[in-house]
Amino acid sequence: MAKAEYDLQPNETIIIRSENVYRGNMSGELILTNLNLVHITTKGVFKTTYIPQRFPTNQIKIFNGKAQALLGKNGVMDVYFINGQESFRFYNSDTLFSEKKAEKEAMNWVNAINHLVTGADIIFEESVNTVSVGAEMVAGVLGDTVGAFKDALGFKSKKTSTDVVDKVAKKCSFCGAAISGNKGQIIRCLYCNADQLL
């Protein structure tokens, strides 16, 4: 797909743009400018008629200092405006790791929108905590294995009240970011600030 034509206003600049972005069932180019979020589709036999849909960035809702551009599953970004909501699905034609690439592109867009609207970058909890969550799980498995060997060899292991606590690692049911903690504990997601029971 050729780059879509979009007439910038004199005080408008492009921040980021992506091709093959779906809004509903219409594929097109998504452009973020300092003034608008623009989805451009084409029509006609030769796909030369460009139809831009503009969504002013100053209409994006802000909650707890974060723009309401939220990462969904499978490369979907939901943007909440004062007068409604729009969903954009990023698609990567590369068959190898296409879902991960689409999610990465959606993360870049969520960060770009948040930076534009609030001036701050978002640190995705999943990218920060994936290593620590994995390390916690491996440590738990190793601890259980050592305990099994001790029991098999006749050594008694001392169990404390902290050993009884089950560690849980899962994804936030609201935004999909990685969360972890003790089973039965209420955790607040660092990305979307939603409270949930582990």
- The CATH first-level class of the largest domain comes to Mainly Beta
What's the alpha carbon Rg, rounded to whole Å?
A: 22 Å
In total, the number of domains comes to 2
- Average predicted local confidence, pLDDT: 77
Characterization of the model:
The chain has a seven-stranded antiparallel β-sheet with strand order 4-3-2-1-9-8-7, covered by helices on one side. The longest helix has 28 residues, at about 125-150. The model is unreliable at about 125-135 (pLDDT under 50). The chain is about 25% helix and about 35% strand. The protein has about 200 residues and is of the alpha+beta class. It is elongated, with a radius of gyration of 22 Å. It is built from two helices and 13 strands. The protein has two domains: about 15-120, Roll (PH-domain like), CATH 2.30.29; about 125-195, no CATH class. A hairpin with a 2-residue loop joins strand 1 (about 15-25) and strand 2 (about 25-35).
Itemize the secondary structure elements and their pairings.
Blueprint: E1 14-23, E2 26-33, E3 36-43, E4 49-56, E5 62-63, E6 66-67, E7 69-71, E8 76-81, E9 84-90, H1 98-118, H2 125-152, E10 167-171, E11 178-182, E12 186-188, E13 195-197
Antiparallel strand pairs: 1-2, 1-9, 2-3, 3-4, 5-6, 7-8, 8-9, 10-11, 12-13
Provide a brief overview of the structure:
This protein has 198 residues and is α+β, with helices and mostly antiparallel strands. The chain contains 2 helices and 13 strands; from the N terminus they run βββββββββααββββ.
